[in-house]
Amino acid sequence: MCGIVGYVGKRRVVPVVLGGLKRLEYRGYDSAGIVYHEDGALKKFRSEGKLINLENSMEEAIGAASHIGLGHTRWATHGAPTTANAHPHSDCSGELVVVHNGIIENYHSLRTELVEKGHVFASETDTEVLAHLIEEYLDGDLRAAVTKALSRVEGSYALGVLWTGMPDTLIAARNHSPLVLGVHEEEGGFMASDIPPLLPYTDQVIFLDDRELAVLTAEGATVYSLESGEEVTKETKIIAWNAAMAEKGGYKHFMLKEIYEQPRAIVDTVSGRINPETGSVELPEMNLSDEDLAGIERIFLVACGTSWHAALVAKYWIERWAGIPVEVDIASEFRYRKLLIDERVLTVSISQSGETADTLAGIRLAKELGSKIVTICNVVGSTMTREAHGTVYTHAGPEIGVASTKAFTSQLAALFLFTLYLAEKRGSMEADQRLLLGRELINVAKVIEKELPILQNDIKELIEKFYDSRDFLFVGRGLNFPIALEGALKLKEISYIHAEGYASGELKHGPIALIDKEMPVLGLAPKDSVYQKSISNVEEIKARQGRLILIGSKGDEHLKTITEDVLYLPEIHEELNPILYTIPAQLLSYEIAARRGCDVDQPRNLAKSVTVE
Ligand code: F6R
Q1: 437 with 455, same domain?
Q2: What is the reported pLDDT for 188?
Q3: Which of 6, 28, 138, 270 could form a disulfide with 191 if both were Cys (CB 3.0 to 4.6 A apart)?
Q4: Residue where a domain terminates, one of 193, 226, 247
Q5: Nearest alpha-carbon partner for 573 in 529, 524, 520
């Protein structure tokens, strides 16, 4: 995810901003830029790749006698990671610049409107729209212009604005994207997407809330509501974090931070892609014509590991709602069997990194056989997205913990969108139903946000009984069977406990022989269409004295009669249960691994991106 740093004060600005950007490097980025004010003009430097490239491109500017500026590291979402798309972005005059994190959902219509008014765009980004929109409203008062511009904007933003007309002032604004201000009587004013850049200079911070704007000078910050325009009294907090804690936003591990980022990641993945009135789904980067879509006879889903589990869930969704037969393949197997693939097949690769060697080899093969390729991917410009005919991006932001969490639930959200899209194009689902399911998809993020801290507390208490187990089974039926597989993978990879996932109905065909009073079994048993069957299966485990943990629907008192260890989740539309039921499986694995003192973020023998076969 992008990073913002801004400074105004007595120090020379470039080293402060560059140093701050380095402290945000952990967030991941693919290009970077800096702008500062000097002699009545803005000096702008941008480059692709790592910060060292930016630093090298501006050697002479490092010591510039400027005391106000902004910096940005960009994780590409709209437009490739090129210098032209790197921030800061300027208005037509070049006298106003903007750095931005987030996604402007209505940027298409705003851009069209601004182009009609004569604005000239220099990038493919959604951000540039902001610079031109502020320019459009600028009449001597920058705060008023930014406020007006943001009243037109739908989506998420953390924003920094600098204008030659007010050479001592930075404007900051926030909506659904993090932005924190730092203040210090002598050092001046700071803004950043996260706390680490502020720590060398101040421990006094002001957290902006959604729809707030700040005017930042060397003397301090004044915060205003974007709704009313009135000044807002903000509390200045003292941060007692060390740098390592700050990078993780106060969480003990990146994995936990990323588990908590899931509601945001899901919303960002869905944002702007479903029309809330009509339920119509837009996936323009998929690049498939209506004719291509109508001609699909079969779909192959190809992926590895956690991404393969996402594919298994999607099979249920696509077959049910779009009526297209789906085959799911582990990429390393797909390549070595006789593939009955031709131009009537659509092959979809699913990958967080877009670089996994086996998945990449799989789509190359399918392409050779005449199949169209779509990739569901989290990394803009990765090899897979370049080689596929089309892409559906997940907007989870960079995932640092090796064990995939937010990338997985974002893949599920993207695959659900993909299903609705296919169903719409092929006329296999009524608009009402699409609208309902689209709303449920957004709702699931809200439910997760509310439940996360409650679940974590309950799980912390529960794991004292289970953390030193040698083995663990996870069981689920239907849509929750792949989630049982995913839960078992999460637990084994980070805690090194041997864990297996099974379809509940399969137990009696072998694995039930493992059940005794030592064996912990986590059962997923929501009130869904296979509930009664799931209950019969867990009763079989109970009868053999297995140590059951059940996860089910709030209000289901029957679960308490089976075991005392029950975790409850709200009842949502059953199609979306796989997203919701992933959360306790992740948290349970995390808490057990942390309790065992494991290296949660970097488990032994594993790499984040598996670029070898
Ligand atoms: C497990 C995990 C891996 C990846 C797999 C595929 O937590 O992260 O199983 O899912 O290596 O990686 P991507 O999705 O990058 O292709």
Answers
A1: no
A2: 97
A3: 6
A4: 247
A5: 529
Whether the per-residue pLDDT at 241 is higher than 70: the answer is no
**What average pLDDT does this structure show over 90-107?**
94
Report, in angstroms and rounded to the nearest whole number, the Rg of the chain calculated over CA atoms. 25
Which ranges of 23-99 does DSSP label H, i.e. alpha helix? 51-57
Q: Is residue 225 part of a domain?
A: yes
Per-residue pLDDT band at 541 (split at 50, 70, 90): very high
Q: What is the mean pLDDT of the chain?
A: 93
605 domain residue, yes or no: no
**Domain shared by 26 and 144, yes or no:** yes
Indicate whether 609 belongs to any domain. no
Residue 423, domain CATH? 3.40.50.10490
Number of domains in the chain: 3
Per-residue confidence (pLDDT) for residue 612, from 0 to 100:
63
- Extract the runs of DSSP E, i.e. beta strands, from 331-465: 345-351, 372-377, 390-393
Measured distance CA(486)–CA(491) in Å, rounded: 9
Specify whether 272 is located in the same domain as 241: no
Domain check: are 415 and 347 in the same one? yes
C-alpha 253 to ligand 1 mean position (Å): 18
Token output for 322 = 């779009």
Does one domain contain both 278 and 213? no
Q: What is the SS3 assignment for 436?
A: helix
Amino acid at 418: F
Which residue lies with its CA nearest to atom 6 of ligand 1?
304
d(CA 451, CA 570): 9
Backbone angles phi, psi at 183, to 5 degrees: -130, 145
Q: Examine residue 604 and state whether it is found in any structural domain, yes or no.
A: no
Write out pLDDT tens, residues 332-353.
999 899 999 999 999 999 999 8
Residues 252-284: tens digit of each pLDDT: 999 999 999 999 999 999 988 998 788 899 998
373 shares its domain with 412? yes
- Residue 538's pLDDT is 95
Distance CA 334, CA 300 (A): 10
Ligand 1 atom 10, closest CA? 306
Same domain for 134 and 51, yes or no, is: yes
Residue 94 corresponds to which tokens in the numbers above? Answer: 């070049």
Question: Catalytic: 92?
Answer: no
- Give residue 352 CA to ligand 1 midpoint distance, Å: 7
242 C-beta neighbours (distance < 10 Å), count: 10
Token digits of residue 122: 């220099």
The answer to whether 372 is a known catalytic residue is no
CATH code assigned at 9:
3.60.20.10
Q: What percent of the chain has pLDDT over 70?
A: 97
Most distant pair of Cα atoms in the chain: their distance: 81
Check whether 244 has a pLDDT greater than 70.
Answer: no
Using DSSP, state whether 476 is helix, strand or coil. strand
Q: At what angle do helices 577-595 and 406-425 cross, to 10 degrees?
A: 170
Same domain for 192 and 237, yes or no, is yes
Residue span of the structural domain in which 551 resides: 449-595
Task: Pick from 255, 353, 375, 383 the residue to mutate for probing ligand 1's pocket: most ligand atoms within 8 Å of its CB.
Answer: 353
Distance CA 558, CA 538 (A): 12
| Most informative mutation of 363, 382, 404, 590 for ligand 1 (most atoms within 8 A of CB) | 404
